[in-house]
Amino acid sequence: MRKSYRIKKEDEFQDVFENGESVANRNFVIYHLQRDQKHFRVGISVGKKVAHTAVMRNQIKRYIRQSLLELKPDLDPQADFLVIARRHATQLDMAETKRNLVHVLKLAGVLASQDVTTI
Description:
Blueprint: H1 10-19, E1 21-24, E2 28-34, E3 41-45, H2 54-71, E4 79-85, H3 94-108
Parallel strand pairs: 3-4
Antiparallel strand pairs: 1-2, 2-4
Helix pairs in contact: 2-3
């Protein structure tokens, strides 16, 4: 995913975190905020309490980025959102990560309707 699709700056993270709405499931929390822009932007956070080693944190982030890349055509282009991993996300493989992200993104209203069984 290109850098223009990422939220990197602390003040942008805080803006979405403080002014956005949140939804969650067992593995992920999504904060989302509507903006006037040409494509969505995403910030990913995996804390040390979630996965104690950098290897595990980076693996979870890679799974999230790849899932979002595959879902890119169905994501709302007007949305900025944060994906925050919870502790149970360390036990997921790639397919389960994508399935859980689809679920929570639908709850947030960021993802267009999609059949989860085909994923």
